Amino acid sequence: MAGAYDDRDGHIWMDGVMVPWRKANVHILSHAMHYASSVFEGERAYNGKIFLSEDHSKRLHNSARLIDFEVPWTIKEIEKAKYDVLKANGLSDGYVRVVAWRGAGEDMGVASARNPVRVAVAAWEWGAYYGDAKFKGAKLDISKWKRPSPETIPCHAKAAGLYMICTMSKHAAEAKGCSDALMFDYRGYVAEATGANIFFVKDGEVHTPTPDCFLNGLTRQTVIGMLKERNIKVIERVIMPQELETFEQCWLTGTAAEVTPVGQIGDYNFEVGALARDISESYEKLVRA
Cystine design at 143: which of 75, 106, 181, 279 (Cβ 3.0–4.6 Å)? Predict the structure, then answer.
């Protein structure tokens, strides 16, 4: 499948109905279009099975509650919809996007309690998020934007509005020839990339930022488990920007990113070393098991 995302063959599940891809539309006065009242999940299917599928569906429900609405479909119903979409589009390997949003209704201001909540599920073929970076290491810019304080946003929701600064950061990075950007948080600590968590290696130990103001990714949690199974010490802590020059290896984790080694962040270089390669390859085996 290729081409613009609004002009493809296939089907998208919308509010319980399988709709032809090109007709899966919403009204321009949908609340989410104007006020970002939307949450979503990005998932990958491998050999016909969606990795951590139910965990993603649970997080969708939780994200919705964090931004003050309820998803009108149960986890079981969403699970069925995801697999129905894969089947309808003839996919065994692919990317699955579930989105829930406040639609068009009686309200068209900041408040929208009377508007219906809509849900859709789409799936498409999608290869490596960072191209050949798994082999030579991704190149990251350092963003001028920072992850906000938990007092200012529902930072543990996978909500559309929270990605605005991520989009701007990635655009700036790509303009410099980078794959992505590292973001600091409101305190100036190392946080994450625009759509992926980050890990560092030093003296045989793994260090990763504490997810206290950004999403604790499901892939992140999976990789921490893999490292602990190998008896590798994982330290979740505050990481200062000046520490970047002291780390030997680095990688990103996320559903789209999977496990992608990093070769450079700004002026700092990292080896695409044995541990980064091992975790990347082992993750590939795990999701396809």
Answer: 181
For 64-90, the pLDDT digits (tens) are: 999 999 999 999 999 999 999 999 999
Q: Which domain holds residue 146?
A: 133-287
CATH of the domain at 258: 3.20.10.10
Bridge partners of 183, per DSSP, are 192
Measured distance CA(134)–CA(174) in Å, rounded: 17
Choosing from 146, 158, 170, 285, the catalytic residue is 158
Q: Is 158 a catalytic residue?
A: yes
